[in-house]
């Protein structure tokens, strides 16, 4: 992929998860990328820790942009999206929320969920 002086790192998929800092930041990411998987997580959450390497792999392997939202640091953002437990995973496609799942999902299920919107 080539870049020019007008492109920015947020214009193209990233190979590692992006950490979201507030609602405006999440909205900017969602508006700039075709498919975004958002992981609402907490550092103290065991299933969240088990999901982390899966999301790292998906960030490197898929066309989706993977983002992470720390619910302890972003309580208002979590409330906005109705997050009641962690991990909660949201999928945005073309700027619209299209999926929401609570609990850790296996890698193959997450991959097929992403591919549903990237193909």
TrEMBL record:
One GO CC term, this protein: cytoplasm
Superkingdom as given in the UniProt entry: Archaea
Keyword Ubl conjugation listed: no
Chain ranges of the Thioredoxin domain: 6-119
A GO molecular function held by the record: protein-disulfide reductase activity
InterPro entries xrefs: Thioredoxin, Thioredoxin-like_sf, Thioredoxin_CS, Thioredoxin_domain
Keywords per UniProt: Disulfide bond, Electron transport, Redox-active center, Transport
Pfam families from the UniProt entry: Thioredoxin (PF00085)
Protein name in UniProt: Thioredoxin
Lineage: Archaea, Methanobacteriati, Methanobacteriota, Stenosarchaea group, Halobacteria
């Amino acid at each position: 992929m080539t870049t020019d002086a007008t492109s920015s790192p947020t214009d193209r998929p990233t190979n590692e998860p992006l950490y979201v800092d507030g609602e405006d930041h999440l909205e900017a990411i969602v508006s700039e990328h075709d498919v975004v998987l958002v992981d609402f997580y907490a550092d103290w959450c065991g299933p969240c820790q088990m999901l982390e390497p899966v999301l790292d792999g998906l960030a490197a392997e898929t066309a989706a942009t993977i983002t992470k939202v720390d619910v302890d640091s972003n309580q208002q953002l979590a409330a906005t999206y109705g997050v009641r437990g962690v991990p909660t995973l949201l999928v945005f496609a073309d700027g619209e929320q299209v999926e929401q799942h609570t609990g850790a999902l296996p890698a193959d299920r997450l991959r097929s969920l992403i591919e549903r919107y990237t193909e």
